[in-house]
Predict the structure.
Amino acid sequence: MRQTLTLSLALSLSALSAAQAQGPIKIGAITSITGRFAEFGKMQLAGFKVGLDEVNRRGGVLGRRVELVIEDNASDVNKGLAAAERLVNAGVPLVLNEYSSSLVKAQAQYLARQKVPALVFSSSGDDITKPGSDYIFRLNQPATEYARAILNIFRDHKFKTMAIIAGTGAFEKSVADAAQDIAKEYGITVVEDQRYDKGLTDFRPVLNRIKAKNPDGILMVSYAEDSVTLMRQAREVGVKPRLFAGGAAGFALPEFVKDAGSAAENVVTATAWIPQLRYPGTQKLNVELKKALGGQDPSYHAAQAYAAVLVAAEAIRRAGSTDREKVKAALNTLNMQTAFGPIQFKDFNGFRNQNPLTMIAQQVQNGAFVPVYPKSVVPRPIKFER
Amino acid sequence: MDQVALTALLQTLAQGLLTGGLYALIGTGLSLIFGVMQVINFAHGDFLAIGMFITLALFRTFHLDPYFSLLVAAPFGFALGFVIQRLVLARLGDRLREGSMLATLGLGLIISNTLLLTFGAQPQSINVPYATSTFQLGGVQISIPLLIAGLGTAVAIGGLNLLLYRTELGRAIRATAQNPLGAELQGVKTGSIQAIVFGLGVAFAAIAGVLLMPLLYAFPTVGENYTTKAFIVTVLGGLGNLPGAIVGGLVLGMIESLGAFYISNNYRDAYGLIAFLLVLLLRPEGLFGRTVKRV
């Protein structure tokens, strides 16, 4: 017993010293640690940690430990570009690039110009990978898919009319524009499409307007703070569609249910990942993310960040080096299963290096998210407002 | 006009009026300070943010109902304003009028960055059970917290009026506003009066912050938006004109709501600014200001 213990200790020590011989592999990562996207940043940091732990538990990559050099973009475009520049100069093989489409698009384009592979894992504005670049890869679903998940539900339940309320940021605009197109395709009339600038706090007039038109569905696309305000004011104004739907982001955060309270009940939201998915390791990932978040339920952002670390490690392993060009080539041929979902970068429908994945929809029922779409998640029946 | 459209219009009007009430409360503080001290307070919105964060902190630590925070935020606001006048504005002496702009702008930056360091930049809100409760009035739904905010505004402004027109202190404040030198010669301690007035103005902003908290979310730079609104309100009503500020607030609330309802929400802030520009161009003394003849 003691001998085996000593032996395994010696083995792990020698593995450790071999791993340390060349020093760790440092992968760049940008996220929003401070600022208005900090809630999402918190989720992503937890995902990074769980992903890194898993990679290093398996002995790292190329016999070396893997570390992340994490830079804060402070939820600001210019600070995001400065963060990307620091990582380029630090010589990292690739950059995990987040959060919020408005920031990520600028960061990704800068990284592509510097010929540094940018791995986008959470931001969904279509134009990040459409037309995209040889150096920009995205493992999560683009905005079109967010809109499609919700519009599929509307179509399946014979909705005739819908209204859209969306912010003017890159992500919100992308989802709302996609919803317009898909509605046309499905024969759903968009009776109202209202966009608002960041900082608006009084949605009542818009909601009154929508109330007067009485649509079957309302699609709202916004970040954390507005999702709560929107639902509170929607209840207050008394607008009653058959279904309120959110385009992920703010609506998919556990905080949304907590802060909006009863106003969140029956709200359906698109989401990129839920623990009920049946990919290998999904349950285990949920447990580990929850632990990393100090007991809080993870949102899809955390699972995406986890997957990004695994993809980056796998790309470097396949490349056999930390050379940026070789890593880029490895990303192109990569095909792997993760607890977030299958990952393969493809060119389709004008997208480049985009992982084709479908979105999921969940609904707040009795103060908790339950899956309602698609069939593969064993959905619960949707509860309608009327 | 059919029933649905009429109800929607009435609801928009009611909500615009109540939102406007809050603008009035914010504008009154700004107007009072300008009327008595000739100080343009660029930190006004930041004092409102202080009110919001006091409410947030008390709710988070003691689960204190937001409306009870008024008992803390209003006196704190008054004390803060009093001290700032004494330590900063009173020292500007003859350069008060111009110097106060820079001084209050600087104070605003100090306040918003202190809030940033203490609470972080992410938007934070509190969830009270009555956040979405409403009452019906002939098909028109009115939010209870918004109504409380409207009533709070009425009480605060009514109280200010009593103070100004029914008390000795109020008489001294009005005297200082009309003619500081004359008031000083009559034995009014204009220094103390100015400190009290600045305290009152800040307290009003803090009260508005508390009343907003059950409805909205707080973040350190939330004040910027409200400083702009306060300026529009006071210019609409005439700088230093208190009844004007009240009407200006109500008008701004209605313009924004009706514009967003009938035209488009996309240009919401533009409606108020257009009204602001029109008033500056056509009636620079404000909608209700007395025309000042320059010699």
User: Anything to note?
Assistant: Chain A has a mean pLDDT of 92.
